[in-house]
Amino acid sequence: MLYLSNQDYIAILNHALLGLPNEACGLIAGKVEADKKYIKKVYMLTNIDESNEHFSMEPKEQLAAVKDMRANNFTLIGNFHSHPESPSRPSEEDKRLAFDSTVDYLILSLENIETPILKAFLIDEGKNVREEQIEIVQ
């Protein structure tokens, strides 16, 4: 189970809306206690691909985020990206590029901009996808 603050959810949503028409992306970090993952910090990164169908995170921003995680004793929990025109589920490219089966892949669908949908997924080495529950907390 993932726990995400409402404030961080709004930040991810705003980052995705500002990135339109392209995909937006970033990293999530926090604390892990058994099967509970508490997202404590969200890192908004630049999609250097400037595409509405795929993303690549800016390397210097990624490095700065990892350094900040270490400084704060946070664990990398995963990453997020938006799907401006498609549902909140991993595309074939998302599955192909999912190299770490221990992290969560969050996808925010803006297909219906009035009702954005955020979901989290675990993708194993065989590229099998399992949805993980997210609870947005105050």
Automatic annotation (TrEMBL):
The keyword 4Fe-4S does not apply. Transmembrane segments: none annotated. PANTHER family: CYSO-CYSTEINE PEPTIDASE. This is Proteasome lid subunit RPN8/RPN11, contains Jab1/MPN metalloenzyme (JAMM) motif. Keywords: Hydrolase, Metal-binding, Metalloprotease, Protease, Proteasome, Zinc. CDD domains: MPN_like (cd08070). GO terms for biological process: proteolysis. One of its GO terms (cellular component) is proteasome complex. The keyword Lyase does not apply. Residues 2-138 form the MPN domain. Pfam families: Prok-JAB. The lineage of its organism: Bacteria, Bacillati, Bacillota, Clostridia, Lachnospirales. GO terms for molecular function: metalloexopeptidase activity; zinc ion binding.
